[in-house]
Design a protein that fits this description.
mainly beta, 4-stranded antiparallel β-sheet
Length: 280
């Protein structure tokens, strides 16, 4: 088990060391690395009120990834003079740290690099594992929400069967049913409402900060059995799942990636009720 250092020196804040800190009185904070909000434990500079997510503070400067196998990816800070860049995986804007291949112009959020290469889903469990792939075919629809797959974003796919699921639709619970022969099976959930609301996530305008357009919350696990429902006082989190992770959708990206990665490690089949596994 890797020990988490209690004090670090980070290139985004060279003035002072950062100390691992868990603030229970003021748990909300803005990560100055990726420019998204966090809760609870962070690396903190008491002199400057500077904060970094644990992952942003400890992720390696150079990585190799199946997402871009030809070249290594280097951790870089956003260059405001170079204009806006989007993550090649989720299409969300990059507002802080990112991994970049200068040769190819490939960019990816640090958290998106943690998406697993393969996973299993209940709608395709008797066939093949799904692999995270870039979009290649236009006009593809998601097997869970039946929405169009954004041709610019990646999705989990069985290329042999041409079976696709949005990254954001992976944890959504499918409907358990029985065929006329008494065989238990799963089918996609009922048609999802045009607007989805995520239990436990405040409105994107709930926090002050430099921008409300690409800030996702950190360390809050989504309530998957209630992943899609009409607004009941919890605040709108995003528009419908069409694979578009820019803007408000990126507010839940960290939680989504964390849950998917944890589920894969624990050999979870997605598409069923995973709430007992995650403890909610």
């Amino acid at each position: 088990m890797t020990l988490i250092p209690t004090t670090i020196q980070h290139f985004t804040h060279k003035q002072h060391p950062l100390i691992l800190h868990d603030d229970t009185i003021n748990p909300k904070y803005l990560c100055e690395g990726c420019m998204t909000y966090g809760f609870g434990t962070r690396y903190h500079c008491h002199a400057c009120t500077f904060n970094l997510h644990e992952y942003c503070a400890t992720c390696p400067r150079i990585i190799r990834s199946f997402m871009h196998p030809n070249h290594p990816l280097r951790l870089v800070e956003r260059d405001h003079l170079s204009g806006d860049r989007a993550c090649n995986i989720c299409c969300g804007l990059i507002e802080g740290l990112s991994y970049r291949c200068e040769l190819c112009g490939f960019d990816v959020h640090p958290i998106c690099t943690q998406l697993p290469e393969t996973l299993k889903h209940i709608l395709h469990q008797r066939h093949h594992p799904l692999r995270l792939l870039s979009s290649v075919d236009p006009g593809i629809t998601c097997a869970v929400c039946r929405g169009a797959c954004n041709p610019s974003s990646w999705r989990y796919r069985c290329a042999l069967c041409k079976f696709d699921i949005h990254i954001g639709c992976v944890p959504i619970q499918c409907q358990n049913t029985t065929t006329h022969r008494g065989i238990r099976t799963y089918i996609p959930p009922p048609i999802l409402p045009q607007q989805h609301y995520f239990v436990g996530y405040p409105s994107p305008n709930h926090f002050p900060g430099p921008s409300n357009m690409n800030h996702y919350n950190y360390n809050i696990m989504p309530q998957y059995p209630q992943l899609y429902q009409q607004n009941q006082g919890h605040g709108q989190a995003q528009t419908h799942y069409s694979g578009n992770y820019g803007g408000r959708t990126s507010q839940v990206m960290f939680n989504l990636v964390k849950a998917i990665a944890t589920g894969v490690i624990s050999n979870v089949i997605f598409g069923v009720d995973v709430s007992p596994f995650f403890g909610f």
